[in-house]
Amino acid sequence: MSKSLNILLVGCGKMGGAMLRGWLARGIDATAVRVVEPFDQAADALRTELSVPVVSAADELEPDYSPDIVVFAVKPQGMEEIVPAYAGSLTENAVVLSIAAGRNIGFFENHLGQGVAVVRTMPNTPAAVGRGITAACANAAVSADQRSACQSLLEAIGEVVWVGDEALIDPVTAVSGSGPAYVFWMIECLARAGEAQGLPADTAEKLARATVAGSGELARLSNESAETLRVNVTSPGGTTAAALEVLMADDGLAKLMDRAVAAATRRSRELAG
Question: Which residue from 12, 59, 190, 271 lies 20 to 30 Å from 28 (Cα-Cα)?
Fold first, then answer.
């Protein structure tokens, strides 16, 4: 990605802040970035920590400022009021990159014009440590160069996958967008189960956290499938096999996960309208 592109970041909360720090760490010049952040305390912190230009609203941007990429990183419920304010600042060469859940490409086309280039994405919270994964979907107006530029911005917070059908963003949301919460709940449950067998609470928590984190890292670095990794650690007739008989029963974890992901997918579709 060209480091000279003008990037407008609208909203700089946890996800927006993670992206911004990732861009700067990758060599994007802070002077090429503008941030719109309405909360004074957050805006002051950005100016002090990262030395980026920050304004509180769209009408405070320089009159001649022309962004190449506009990144919307605000909560979905605020989009109706926020997005239309940027219609006048978009040139025909600009692309909109949205990380807001529940707002489809049509929403931005309706508010910003039918010819606007839009990339809709779904990142997840491990982006905060540069280990997220983001699914992205582009409308027909997005050029190859714009897609490449958006890919580079998203890679600052982790891996990127592209889907051709926007409808797939809903199951993506259910699997990876909401997925970290499932993993955190697993840590809680594993720790509590250890406590029930007599482990001190702090020891059970430490064991559960390290086991999930280490297993995830092993899965990330290994060329073997998750199934193979599971089989490799399961000795016939051993302790792991005894536990998996419960987890892999007909009414076990697979059924629960099917129901959970289906519920999250349905809700994502409802939120998108």
Answer: 59
Write out pLDDT tens, residues 210-252. 999 999 999 999 999 999 999 999 999 999 999 999 999 999 9
**110 contact partners, CB below 8 Å, separation of at least 6:** none
Is 6 within 8 Å of 67 (Cβ atoms)? yes
Nearest to 18 by CA among 124, 126, 127: 127
Strands 117-122 and 132-138: what pairing? antiparallel
Specify the pTM: 0.91
In which residue ranges of the chain is CATH 1.10.3730.10 found? 177-272
Tell me the two tokens of residue 57: 């609203």
d(CA 74, CA 256): 32
Sequence ranges of the chain with CATH classification 3.40.50.720: 7-169
CATH of span 177-272: 1.10.3730.10
Paired tokens of 56: 């509180």
Q: Which CATH superfamily is domain 7-169 in?
A: NAD(P)-binding Rossmann-like Domain (3.40.50.720)
